[in-house]
Design a protein that fits this description.
Length: 319
């Protein structure tokens, strides 16, 4: 059974091609796209950017104080970009990526600081965005949520500006909104884009990327739910996954010999591109020995029961 790496949908590629060739003109896709992002994120303002990292750059450019990042389960770009901007970085201890607001009480934080984190810790477990936002709001800490895998959440708790001051996302391959490049940033703070006007100018995108994002946003909620359902099914049939009780879009399975077992799994579950099965420790997942299986990176045609059962068989045979 051959697994397939996620690629942009045919409809997405077609509209991007039509815009690039001039078959579709004067469509204002960027404006339409920003309005749709606002609808999905409950935001008043949104901007399309050239990448997810540029969205982070824009968001962190507005921060005057410290930048708090989780000790694992985030995105390495948080630290790299904060360093580039000469921000003071504070590392927050987590439960394998999950944020406990009690730990924030132990930190010595300056005024006008922010906490930046991902909707899913290591893509494996959803964060408690409501409690995080309440604590941070009560204590004068801005929240920046990287919702690259959380946009379109049917429960309305991820990728929602009701529970984050700023929501950012990447739309590069193989993200949930899968265009190959680009990203966006959304907020209810009208001053954000004024304070970050220069970074936004440097992060300008084009109508081709905007048209692709607009097309992908039409099915983002459905695609997220399909991925969540597939991962939940796998967690129920594979023992000992990290954060098994939490919604997520990948599996992280502790193992004493992840290097060897990752190699064996790659032979058992072949795919046409790398990035489906990875080993930990890995800051972007967990900093312990484990195997990470990126369900979010699979084409949606590979999220059917017969493919999921093959993953279950292969993983359980290794345990």
């Amino acid at each position: 059974m051959q697994f397939e790496f996620k690629t942009p949908k045919d409809e997405t590629l077609k509209i991007m091609s039509d815009v690039a060739s001039g078959k579709v003109e004067n469509t204002d896709f960027e404006d339409k796209c920003e309005k749709r992002v606002c609808e999905l994120t409950n935001a008043e303002y949104a901007k399309i950017t050239s990448s997810g990292n540029n969205s982070i750059f824009v968001a962190l450019s507005s921060v005057k104080g410290d930048v708090i990042i989780p000790d694992q389960g985030g995105w390495h770009g948080f630290k790299q970009i904060a360093k580039f901007l000469n921000k003071n970085i504070i590392t927050l201890k987590t439960d394998l990526g999950l944020i406990n607001t009690n730990e924030l009480d132990t930190l010595d934080i300056s005024d006008n600081s922010c906490l930046i984190y991902t909707s899913f810790a290591g893509y494996a477990a959803e964060q408690d965005t409501k409690s995080i936002f309440k604590y941070c709001k009560d204590n004068g800490i801005a929240t920046i949520q990287d919702a690259s895998a959380g946009i379109g959440d049917e429960k309305g708790v991820l990728g929602n500006c009701k529970y984050s001051d700023i929501v950012i996302a990447s739309t590069g391959q193989p993200k949930l909104i899968n265009v190959g490049s680009g990203g966006f940033i959304a907020t209810n703070d009208e001053n954000l884009f004024k304070e970050s006007s220069l970074p936004l100018k440097l992060s300008k995108t084009n109508e081709i990327i905007s048209s692709g994002i607009y097309e992908e946003l039409k099915s983002v909620s459905e695609n997220l739910q399909v991925t969540l359902n597939a991962t939940d099914y796998l967690k129920k049939h594979i023992p000992n996954t990290i954060h098994a009780e939490k919604r997520g879009v990948n599996l992280i399975i502790p193992h004493d010999n992840p290097k060897e077992k990752t190699w064996e799994l790659k032979k058992e579950l072949p795919i046409n591109k790398s990035g489906f099965i990875n080993k930990c420790p890995n800051y972007n997942r967990v900093k312990t020995k484990a195997i990470s299986i990126e369900i979010k990176n699979l084409n949606y045609s590979c999220l059917k029961k017969e493919y999921l059962d093959e993953i279950i068989r292969a993983v359980n045979n290794l345990q």
